[in-house]
Structures are given as structure tokens and as C-alpha cells.
Amino acid sequence: MKIDSDDVADLAAGATLLGSGGGGDTATVALMLQHTLTRLGPVHLIEAMELFPRAMVAPIAATGSITLLSERLPAGHEFQHAVTTLGQTLGTPVSALMGFEVGGANALFAVAAAAWTGLPLIDADGMGRAFPRIDQVTFNAAGLSATPAVLADPLGNHMVIAQSRDNGDAERMLRAAMPSLGGWAATAIYPMQAAQAARHAITGSIRGALALGRLLRAAQRHRSERAAMQAEFDAELLFSGGILQVLRHARPRTGGTVTIEHRRDSRRTLRVEVGEEYRLAIDDGRVVAAVPDIICVLDALTWQPISAEHIAPGREVDVLKLPAPVHWTLPQARDLVSPPAFGLTLLDEDLGGPIAWLR
Amino acid sequence: MAAVTVRDLLNDAVLTGHRLIGGADGLTHVIRDAALVSTDELNRLPSGAVAVMDISTTRGLSRQHLVEQVLLRVHHRGGRMLIVVGNLEDPPQSIIRLADRLNLPVVAVQGPSPAAVAAHVMAVAQQPELAYARVLGIAARKLTTADSIDRILSIVGGVLHASVALVAADGAVIAGGLLHLRPETIDWSSGAIIDSVPSHVLAALPIHGADGQMWLACEAAHGGPAWQDTARTLLQVATLAVAAWLARQRLAAERDRTRLHGMFTELLQLDPRQGVPEPLAAQAATLGVALDGWHVGLHLTWHRDSLPDSNGQATATLTRALATEELDTALITRADGWSLWKTSATRSTSADIDHLVDQLRRCICYYNAAGHTPLVGGVGQPAAGPSAIPETVHQAQRAARAIATTGQPGAVSFVGDLGAHHLLAQVYGEPAFRAYAQQLLAPVLKAPDSAALLLTLTAYLGNSCSPTQTAKAICVHRNTVAERIARIEHLLTTPLKKTDQLALQLACRSLSPATDVAGP
């Protein structure tokens, strides 16, 4: 399969929804990707199994602040440098790129990086949605190392994190490097063999984002298409109502709490805990969705996803829950992305026990 | 003992500084138990209990979302209230709405140990009699030795966690203060008052021996039936302490009044050529009375022929009224009212006198509004030195007597403003002159419309015999005035121009009710 410039709008829409309110603004990156694909031609989307099992694969992403990225646009060479330097560091050239985070702008960067480097893109990623930390990937749960990781900025600076004690430390080192790299960097990380990618990555996620985006855009054009999209992706409508209040945490904490008043029962409220993404939804005291579930807040009229950064009181919204990628339900992976990993304690019965009796 | 409700708990010291987050409709819930709950022990919460949740040790970035989850579970287990101990920060609307929806009060408090809160609430809920009897016992012991009203109010306020005040029946606060209530809006005529509305609770009892004129009242933001029971019991003990304090105050006031009278009598007999005798100066100093400086006498007397009040509260009301205008100097009870004087370092200007007249007018207005026999007032000329005090007070007394005859209730007159007719009014107020006046005007008084004729004659003479001015003054047509004057002249058998008009005018005033028809 090839991804060309005609697919960008669908991919951007799907990636935005999978961002769960986070993952960065896709609009600017979508324009850039469209220009890139028009200029350089389509990107080959392959399966990891199609590669020689020991072929080197590099998940690719832009890390740091996506907001800063809009002010300091990538030229493309930083992604090429990151991939080339990673191959040089490993002593083996990179054979294919792979998605790192399919939610938000990084889904588009993966395609753009494949176009800039001329490498095929494996239809897979490490998150199946958006998460804020580089250790919140299925590769980490599988025991793969994030290092060596290469960070490259638009000015030609490279930084190699050669080794880290664990992937949590790699995350801390990467964040510490961001100010000196100008706030964001093209990042080639978690180098692995094609066989490992086939086994540990969330496969089909790029195609899935494309399909999701296609149906979402249809639902945005025609209200009657909404049910089809929900049925196709097992998306549950959690709540419909008006945003009553948005309480932001004091700096340096990000996010806050959103209270939504039900459209038909004004005494009923949905509380959404917000970090970089939407993380927890509590309907009148009952937890109805929690990370790694993909909680999406959409404008009730247009069904445009509303980011956690731009959510504001007064808007009429629908709240959807997309099921978490199955990889995150496995015991060894769950702890990386469950609510306690984000500082959200839940009652024991809400951490998997039956809660229907509460209603 | 009444059952303990959530409102009672909100008044408890253990929840000092609490914030009621939501669920105000559940404040009447009766509570029977309490338990410290954690996220994995909610099943142990008994029905009818208060759940105490400690979020101070909760790990992670957010604690508020747990409150909502626990709140729902407390509700399902029949809990009656959720106390959150720790920093809840700004609660979002979702918590408030959920608490309101479930009618389950949620209270946040910082500072106390969660275990101590749970233990205390459990003790109060399970054995309220014991808990309240203990505090009442301590309070009763303290009240027996309380020797000032502030101390008594402080003890009552401390036990009931309420603002406490000693209030007069007219709503004036004698000591202490209430929280939000305005005492003047309360009907103090009934017996004990227990009033509970969502924003506050009030308990009040009349003071023994004060003829229902004085109340001990306490007001709290919260307080349910148990609080009200406790308040009623404690107020019964406290009113006895207040009555004892009141008796001591009256005794001291009576002693001071006697001394004041003695001092004033000596002042009246003071020879201006000799200085102030040393014992008199010492007595004045003891009573807090200034003899040196510039004095302005003030006198208050009853309007016209009114009888003085029979109840003993008149002086107390007047003292309070004077205090509100910062005229709380020594008040001397006289046969025809009260005298006092105001002292200053420099001579009072005319503006100062005008201000003083206004102050005294407001005092009298306050006093008259309390339902006592209406007063009028007089103000004397400024005078310097101890020997001048009797003179300025005497001038004030003259001014008060003059305005009592001719003015309206509440009027205040400065002696310097008294016109000739005011001074003469003292003459025509005498019984002998009234007899003479009745004789002089007998033909007019016998006429069927004597009142109209007398009014017209008074106005006519007071307006320089001008029919036009007279008509304006008594609101009739000019021809009516002319017709009435012609009839009067016919009745008196002589033209008015040929009579002694001054004698006739004084006779009219002596027999007329006070009016303002006399012209400028």
C-alpha cells in the first residue's frame, strides 16, 4: 500500500482522534506532509514481516513541544540525520522506519520521515494512541531498550543517548536535552530488528488511523454516518452535554479538570481528568473510562475533536470512548499506562472489578 | 437529648474552618456513627454513619476525583455525610453537583488528624448526652466565676461556637454582637426563641429580672436539634450569670448617680468668686466629670404636659441613645427630665452648636421611637469654668421648657435662637394667665365655631394683622379670614385695632394648641 497526498486529510483526522486530546496539533504538520508527498511522491507502507527478520527498524517521532514545532518548522534533514546517525551508531543501516506514536502529529511525522529518508514505513507503532512519555510504548513493555537513541534539531545538532539504565532514565535524559535542542527534536529511538517489530509493535495502526479518519470525516459531513463510525471502531458514546467548568492546575502541572453537564439531565455531570490527554472520565462518581482507553471530546455539532489544550466552558460536546489497543491490556504492559502511572489513584473495584452494581 | 444531625456536627469544634462543598439539603440527616474510610475499606462503613476520608496521604497528582468515587459509594452504603480531611483545593462543579444530587453533605477540613475527627464524631454520634453534658459542666463551672459581661459572653460563645450578644428589647446590642442577624428585626416579645433557617440558627432567652427588656442571644452559622438543646440549657445557666452581673451594674450605677447628684448640687451652690473646693474637684475626677474647659449645657424634658415614664428603662434607653451620638457624659436625673453638659478645650462655634443640636435631636428621635413618653431638648450657651456649668445647664433647661410648650415632640432648641414669643410662652403657660385668657376671650370661646375663630385670631395676630398672610397660614380663603375677623370683632364688641393686641395674642397662645401659624 502507498500513502499519497490524498490520504493526508484522513490520516490527520484519525491521528487527531487517537490523540485523545493530546499528541499535538496536526493541522500544520498535515500541510507540511501534503507538500512533502506531493514533492517526493508516495510512501510505501509495508508489514514488518515483509522485511528480512534481522533488518534494522527505527521507530521515528518528533519529541518535545509540538507547539514549538509549529514556530520552528522542520526542514526534513533533521529526520534524515537522526536515522543516518542511528545507523552509524549501531553499525547497521536502518532498513525501514516505523511509527512511534499514532495519536497526534507523530503519525504524520512518521510518514513524512519515510518520504524524506526514502525508506519504507512499517504499518505499526508503539502506542496505538498518544502518550506523553517515551517509555509508555509496547516496546518498553516487551523489554526492548530505547537506546541508542538519536535526537537531531533543525540546526544540524545531533545528540546520541548511547545507553541508559532503563527506559525511564532515557525519558529523563531526553527531556533534559530538549531546551538545548530548541524545544523539539527529530528522534530515532528503540532501534530493533524487523522480527521484534513484528512481535512487539501495535501492527496496522497507520492503516487503522487512515480508516478511522475516513469514517470520522464522513461523520463530520453527515450526522447519519456517526453510528457507522461508532460501530466500526466499537466507539461508545459516554456523554453528551455542555462544558460547565474547566479548572486548570497551577503550573508546573499541566491539565486540570473538566466538568460537563448532561444535555437532558442537568443534575448529572461527567468529570474528565486532563493531563496532556484526557485520562479519566467519571460519570456521577462512576468511572466510565480510564487510560489506556482513548477518551475523545468532540464538538457536538461538527464532531471536530477538541484538544485538551483548547477545551473551554460553554461548548456543547459529545464524549466518546475508543477501546484501548489490546496490547495495553496485557499485565506486563498495563502498569505503564494505567491511571496510577499518571498519578491517578482509583478505588480497587474501579481498577478492573465489576462496577455495574453501583448504578 | 435530641438526635445529632449534620448541622450539629458542622458547629462542632472538630470541624472548625470547614468548607461545605455541597449537599446542603442533607444537613438535617441524623447521624449515628462514624468511620475512617480508605479506598479499599469502604465496605466497612455502617449505615447512617459519617465517612471520614483522609486525602492528605493520597499519593499522586489528583485527589479530588477520588472524592467523587467515594461519595457515590458512601451514598450506596447509607452514609449520611462525607468529611474530607486534607487539602481539597478548589472543588470542581462535578463534586458539588454530585453531592447536591445525592443530598449528601461533603465537608472539607484541614488541620485535624483524620483519626481524631472520626473518633470525636463517633463519640458525639453514639453518645450525644455524654459529649454535651461534659462541655455544659465545664461551662457552668466557668460561669459561676465570670465577673464581667464580656467573660460571660465569651464562655457561652466558646461552648456553642456562636456569636453571643446581650440585646435590649428594642434591638439595641448592649454587649457582644451577632453574626448576621439584625436584632431590631427580631420579635423579642415572646419567651425563648429558637429559630433555625438554612443560613443560621438563633437561640435566645430573656434575662431574669429585666422585665423582658433584655435578652441573651446567640447565633451560629450551623446548629441542629442537639445544638439547640445545648444552647437552651446553657443559656438558662448563663442568663442567671447575666442577671447577677446586671444587679451589680445597677448597684454601681445607682451609687454613681447619687454621687453625681451630690456633686451637681454643690456645683449649683458654687460661689463663682471662690475656686472649686478640693473635695468637689476630687469627686468630679472620681466620677470622670470634667469641670475645667468650655461647657455647653443640655437638658431633656417631656413634651408639654406629658407624664414621665413609669418604667425604669427610660434612663437606660436615653443613656444608650446618648452613647450612639457620643454624648455619653454624666447624665443627671432632674425633676423635669435630665441634664448633662458637654465639655471641650475651646469655645464651641456656632457650627459646633448646630452639630450639637443635631446630635441631641437624633438622640431624642431614637428615644422617642422606643415608645417612651416623647422628649424635647434644649441647648445652653457655651460657658467657661466650673462655676459656669449651672448657668449653661439652666439656659438649656429654659430652652427645653420653651420648646416643650410650643414645639413638636423631638424638637431641640438652642437658647440663643429662642424668640420673644418662646420666652413669653413661659408666662402664658402659667395657670393664672390661662384663667385671665379665658376671661378675655370668653365671647369667642362660647361661639359654636370657637376653634376655627381662635385659630384664625391667633394666625391673624401672628401675621401682623394681614388677611392675605393669615389665609396662607391656615389654608383658607382671604374672604373667610375677613369674615371671621369681623365676627370676632362683633363678639368682642370692639375693633381689634383698638384692643391690647399683645395681651390678646398671649391669651390666644395660652389657649391654643401649639401651631406654626404665628408667622415668622
UniProtKB/TrEMBL annotation, chain A:
Which InterPro entries does the UniProt entry name for this protein? S-Me-THD-like_C (IPR048350), S-Me-THD_C_sf (IPR024071), S-Me-THD_N (IPR010318), S-Me-THD_N_sf (IPR027479)
The regions listed as transmembrane in this protein's record are none
UniProt cross-references to Gene3D superfamilies, sorted A to Z? CV3147-like (2.40.390.10), CV3147-like domain (3.40.1610.10)
| The S-Me-THD N-terminal domain, residue ranges | 6-162
S-Me-THD-like C-terminal domain ranges (all copies):
166-345
Q: Which domain of life is it from?
A: Bacteria
Q: Which protein are we looking at? A: DUF917 domain-containing protein
Q: What organism is listed for this UniProt entry?
A: Sphaerisporangium flaviroseum
Automatic annotation (TrEMBL), chain B:
Tell me which InterPro entries the record gives.
CdaR-like_regulators (IPR051448), CdaR_GGDEF (IPR041522), PucR_C-HTH_dom (IPR025736), PucR_C-HTH_sf (IPR042070)
Q: Which domain of life is it from?
A: Bacteria
Location of the PucR C-terminal helix-turn-helix domain = 453-509
Pfam families on file: GGDEF_2, HTH_30
Domain (CdaR GGDEF-like) spans 277-402
Q: Hey, which family's this protein in?
A: Belongs to the CdaR family.
Q: What protein name is recorded for this chain? A: Helix-turn-helix domain-containing protein
Specify the species. Answer: Sphaerisporangium flaviroseum
